[in-house]
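Hey, can you fold this one?
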Amino acid sequence: MARVGYAMAVHGQRWRFQLENTQIDVDNAFTWLGWSQERVTINDEVVLSTQQWFGFRRSLSEPWLTSAGDTELTVQLIATMMAVQCRLELDGEAVLPHKRYEARWSGRGIWPAQEGWRETNTFSVFGGAAR
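Sure. Predicted structure:
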């Protein structure tokens, strides 16, 4: 008998930041079995994409050119017991997300289409514990 492939249920969270004319999306997705995948897109271009089993922390720092000159953009995703936290800083100053989205789909290592994300005030998978 042929074995049917198992597609894992994946829960996705997106934090959208607006910096001047630049849109930054930080996406985190995970399964309850320990799989996680993350990506950072800037103006719809993927600049970081990672995936692994049991990943608890991701970090990205790179130079950033603003109207005031060069600065540093830092993105951190941190998994805690009850939430995944996203921190974005521009030269050490915290930037708050402009919007939040969530999505659910099957199949690790892939992402849903843009229309698969729905806007939310609190992430339902954690009962509002994420910020």
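Residues 1-5 have pLDDT under 50 and may be disordered. Let me know if you want another pass with a different chain boundary.
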